[in-house]
Amino acid sequence: xxxxxxxxxxxxxxxxxxxxxxxxxxxxxxxxxxxxxxxxxxxxxxxxxxxxxxxxxxxxxxxxxxxxxxxxxxxxxxxxxxxxxxxxxxxxxxxxxxxxxxxxxxxxxxxxxxxxxxxxxxxxxxxxxxxxxxxxxxxxxxxxxxxxxxxxxxxxxxxxxxxxxxxxxxxxxxxxxxxxxxxxxxxxxxxxxxxxxxxxxxxxxxxxxxxxxxxxxxxxxxxxxxxxxxxxxxxxxxxxxxxxxxxxxxxxxxxxxxxxx
Length: 261
Known about the structure:
This protein has helices at residues 2-18, 34-46, 63-70, 81-91, 131-143, 179-182, 193-198, 231-240, 243-253; strands at residues 24-30, 51-57, 75-80, 95-103, 107-109, 124-128, 148-149, 162-164, 170-174, 188-191, 209-210, 218-224, 258-259. It is α/β, with parallel strands linked by helices. The strands form three sheets. It has a six-stranded mixed beta sheet, with helices on both faces. Strands 9-6-10-5-11 form a five-stranded mixed beta sheet. Helix 2 (34-46) packs across helix 8 and helix 2 (34-46) runs antiparallel to helix 9. The longest helix is centred in the first third of the chain and has 17 residues, at 2-18.
């Protein structure tokens, strides 16, 4: 009996030694469009590494950070650093960025004119109503000589920071997700790439003004601060920042989304 018992114990020990560790399961929040598409590719690559990813889509830029901070998500991938910094400063979130992902140069689109020079005096320009993305459009207009902003506005200028407006542009703030729908009613609108693509716009060829791909607006993966050193975070970031995902981005988006790690 003792020999049988020892043999059974040895068999169990061997099975336990070679059995793979249980897969880690995480929830990641994204916005629809490229962020979701890229995460689907990351999900496939991460599964053989023992990381199971559930992707949840959110239709705005506010809820994914709220959900992450509350513990309803393990990570999110939808925002750039200035936006995250602004959210943390305003709302006290205990979340942190752990790796860069992609850049989406923002564009100004129009159904009424073919260049911004053709926007009439007093024309209406719609911009996102969050400080960082609205500020991006204002900075884009300044960089092209259509506005002058106050000094030292950083990456989050507001309409109140406009000090010169030669064309007397009427600038209105609209929820970022609704900007494509506003195009028939305004002379032009600054639209984030994910919402532009979702609306069938071409972010490379359709904008009448387009942001330089260089700058501070690289997107990132965020997690709760307490989780930043977890093994699954390293697996997630390394999988995202792989040659396979870079190739996927280049082949899928044809320059409208840029790998930025």
